[in-house]
Amino acid sequence: MLTTRQKLNILKEHGEHETDTGSPQVQVALLTKNIEELTGHLKKHRKDNLSRRGLLKMVGKRKRLLDYLSKRNSKTYTTLIKKLGLKK
After folding, report:
1. For each of the chain's 88 residues, which pLDDT tens digit applies?
2. Which of 11, 31, 33, 52 could form a disulfide with 15 if both were Cys (CB 3.0 to 4.6 A apart)?
3. CB of 23 within 8 A of CB of 72?
4. Is the entire prediction scored with pTM above 0.90?
């Protein structure tokens, strides 16, 4: 899980304003950080299938948000992909 300080840093970096928690950019950034942490957990605990299911749900949600963002605002999509180091 992300700490409050980590979430605030992500909000400042990717949000449009300080209290922006609902924009697709912020949601994708938060999901990406959660996915990275959960991936590390699953490397250590290989048989944790409930966490694996949660990881797959988060990856699917991030993919849907990225698809939405690419259709609505392609410029923001490309800059977000570069910042987070994701593949297209």
Report:
1. 899 999 999 999 999 988 888 999 999 999 999 999 999 999 999 999 999 999 999 999 999 999 999 999 999 999 999 999 998 7
2. 11
3. no
4. yes
